[in-house]
Structures are given as C-alpha cells and as structure tokens.
From TrEMBL:
Annotated GO MF terms: ATP binding; ATP hydrolysis activity; transmembrane transporter activity
Gene Ontology CC entries for this record: membrane protein complex; plasma membrane
All residue ranges annotated as the ABC transporter domain in the record: 6-243
Name the UniProt record assigns to this protein: Putative ABC transport system ATP-binding protein
Keywords: ATP-binding, Nucleotide-binding, Transport
InterPro entries xref list: AAA+_ATPase (IPR003593), ABC_transporter-like_ATP-bd (IPR003439), ABC_transporter-like_CS (IPR017871), ABC_transpr_LolD-like (IPR015854), MacB-like_ATP-bd (IPR017911), P-loop_NTPase (IPR027417)
Native organism taxonomy: Bacteria, Bacillati, Actinomycetota, Actinomycetes, Pseudonocardiales
Length: 243
C-alpha cells in the first residue's frame, strides 16, 4: 500500500511574463501522507488557491511535478487529467456546488454516473450514515440547511473512494457551530475511514481541526505546525504578516 497520497516536487507557478510576471508558487516541495488531514494557510495572495489548483490538476505548474500516488499529473493529456480528477480526487468547495434539480442521492452519486459507474450500495449507505444524511436522500438541496448541503458535498466527494479529498474553505459559508460540525466530520472521515484530506482555509479554528498545518508566504512554504490549536495557528499567521 502506498503511503504517500499526493506530492509536489519543486512546483513553481508564474502568471504572466516579463515585468508583469507574478510568481504565485515558488519551489514548493511537500508530501501528503495517506490517512492524514492537512490544512494549508497563508496570508491573502500567498498562493493558497494556486496551490490547490496545481495540486488538483485544475491548473498546470510552470515547472516541477505534481504526483497523485504514482501518477505524474503533468504527463497526462487533458482527457486523462479530467478522468483522474473525477475518479481519484474528491472536491469540497465553500459554495457546495450542488445541482438544485437533483435529489440529495442523485447529487451524491453524480461523480459515479458521470464515470459510467454504479454506486456500491453498501458503501453509499456507509457514506450517507457517516455524514448524517440518513432519511434525507430524496430531498432537494433547497430543502436543506447550509451545513446539510455541505454534508451532501462531502458525501459526493467520498462516493468514488478518492485517494485524496481537496477542500477549499469548506466552512467559509457556515456559522461557527455548523462549521465546527462539518470540521468534525472531515476529521472523522480521516480518523475513522482512513481518508486523506487537504484543506485550504483562512480560519485558524478550521485549520486546528487538521493533524497539521502548512503555512504559505509569498508562494513559498513557510513552516508546519503539528497538532495545531487555533491560538498557535493565529500566532503563526500574525508572524507571517497581514492576514
Ligand atoms: N490568473 C492569475 N493571473 C495573474 N496573477 C494571478 C492569477 N491568479 C493568482 N494570481 C496572483 O498570484 C498570487 C497568489 O494568488 P492566490 O490566489 O493563489 O493566493 P491566495 O493565497 O489564494 O489568496 P486569497 O487568500 O486572497 O484568496 C497573487 O499575487 C495573485 O495576485
């Protein structure tokens, strides 16, 4: 069994060229081990979104390598990359991104249907129970609270048994109590289901739900905090500058 879910090797991303060039990621090397929950934090403009786009294959680095397991994403043509994103990566966004005309169950199983696969009934019911959506499968997103909608999005991210779940500010639209429940859910899918989760956030409380926090500053890795607390994360962020 591979122990590394995702690795970045000397990843650089430069937007534009000449005097207007912006280096959004500068020589970022890191590994994300399987079964870990990692948060990525950094001041505004430090490269968090660029990092997530490169790590997920949504964008290609200017140089360096991104590997999902043993697969070098840079070696893949667009169609193969799309399949990797669909089949091997789960995504959770701040804005849920559910389809309003589909039921909860149809939203959750959409990635499988797009891949021409059927849901494994036992796995689906395990995922639905884990995210606390039992009895709500025939509802539509508009009938659910924000926290429940994010649970649907998390179930959708898990349904294809991805190698890594990438979350972009997953609690950014939620009140603090609901956010805490969603963070506990993300932590539990790691601790109890062995998932791997990588989450970008601005929020020290959200980051402290992870096993470790990676800090970005000016596109470079600027340290790691193991067993974070909100206070330690906030302190580190304050030392990195404006946030
Ligand atoms: N498409 C683009 N074209 C040009 N520059 C870009 C582009 N996307 C990002 N940048 C620049 O790259 C740097 C990193 O941006 P990025 O969005 O990754 O940071 P971030 O940490 O996610 O910021 P925020 O927390 O404000 O969302 C910034 O200087 C930004 O202006």
């Amino acid at each position: 069994m591979r122990t590394v879910a995702l690795s970045l090797r000397a990843v650089r991303k430069v937007y534009g060229s000449g005097s207007g060039a912006v280096t959004a990621l500068d020589d970022v090397t890191l590994t994300v081990r399987r079964g870990t929950f990692t948060a990525v934090m950094g001041p505004s403009g430090s490269g968090k979104s660029t990092f997530l786009h490169c790590a997920s294959g949504m964008d290609r680095p200017t140089s360096g390598q991104v590997l999902l397991g043993d697969t070098d994403l840079g070696s893949l043509k667009e169609a193969a990359l799309t399949e990797v994103r669909r089949d091997r990566i789960g995504f959770v966004f701040q804005a849920y991104n559910l389809l309003p005309s589909l039921t909860v169950e149809q939203n959750i199983t959409l990635p499988l249907r797009l891949a021409g696969r059927r849901a494994d009934a036992a796995w689906l019911s395990q995922v639905v129970a884990r995210v606390g959506l039992d009895g709500r499968l025939s509802r539509h997103p508009s009938e659910l609270s924000g926290g429940q909608q994010q649970r649907v999005a998390i179930a959708r991210a898990l349904v294809a048994r991805p190698e890594v779940v990438l979350a972009d500010e997953p609690t950014g639209a939620l009140d603090s109590r609901t956010a805490q429940q969603v963070l506990e859910l993300l932590r539990s899918i790691v601790d109890e289901m062995g998932q791997t989760v990588l989450m970008v956030t601005h929020d020290p409380v959200a980051a402290s739900a992870a096993h470790s926090v990676l800090f970005l500053a000016d596109g470079r890795l600027a340290g790691e905090l193991i067993s974070p607390t909100p206070e330690k994360v906030a302190d580190r962020m304050t030392r990195l500058g404006e946030w």
